Amino acid sequence: MASRTVAVQSELLLVRHRRGDPGALPELVALWERPLLYYLRRVSGSEEDAWDALQETWYRVVREVSRLRDDRALPAWLYTVARHAAFSARRRSRPAEALPDGEDAPELPAAEPEPPLAGFEPVDVHRALARLSLAHREVLTLHFLEGFSIAEIGAVTGAAEGTVKSRLHYAKRALRTLLEKGDSR
User: Fold this and answer.
1) What is the pTM of this model?
2) Taking every pair of C-alpha atoms in the chain, what is the biggest distance, in angstroms?
């Protein structure tokens, strides 16, 4: 999840917004726009789609932020809203493409930890990430690049924790395979 500092800033901005401070919401947008756009670039079909989804995300946030009961849940809620905006756009533009859902997957047996991606250039990692399936790209982005826990990813995606663990396991394996083959282009 976001750093503790960002989480506290977000909670304070929500309090200010609820008290009628007109500057609080623009500050909240400024705080979260870059991380959300990064995530949306990974789950959207194009740069333009990511920007459209970001705009739709903020529209929905403005409309629905008053429904948020627990201010600490803001990061996961923001990513959930962004995910819905991105996937709605994908369904409109590519109705036949399968999107990840919350269906349960079999639990994986305990495995030895995989070594980190040390030794690979960041540009190669990002290229390989772009070649993965949407479900794999999403869990890797949320877990490693956004810092979300398995439970938080489950909350964002609507998937059971076992499903998230399974996707994460197979996503790491697929990413490593692409990188080791040098097949990230």
Assistant:
1) 0.74
2) 55
Query: pLDDT tens-digit profile of 67-94?
Result: 888 988 899 999 999 999 998 877 776 6
Q: Name which of 38, 83, 34, 35 is nearest 57 in CA terms.
A: 83
Q: Which fold has domain 4-93?
A: Rna Polymerase Sigma Factor; Chain: A (1.10.1740)
pLDDT tens digit string along 11-22? 999 999 999 999
- Using CB atoms within 10 A of its CB, is residue 66 exposed (0-12), middle (13-18) or buried (19+)? exposed
Cβ contacts of 2-11, under 8 Å, gap ≥ 24: 2/35, 2/75, 2/146, 2/147, 3/147, 6/31, 6/75, 7/72, 7/74, 7/75, 10/71, 10/74, 10/75, 11/71, 11/72, 11/74
Q: What is the pLDDT of residues 102-119, one digit of tens each?
A: 443 444 344 444 445 666
User: What distances in angstroms separate CA 130 from CA 12, 47, 63, one per listed residue?
Assistant: 35, 12, 32
122-181 topology per CATH: Arc Repressor Mutant, subunit A (1.10.10)
Res. 169: pLDDT tops 60: yes
pLDDT of residue 79: 94
Numbered ranges of CATH 1.10.1740.10 in the chain: 4-93
Q: Do residues 80 and 156 make contact, with C-beta atoms less than 8 angstroms apart?
A: yes
How far apart are alpha carbons 137 and 129 in whole angstroms?
6
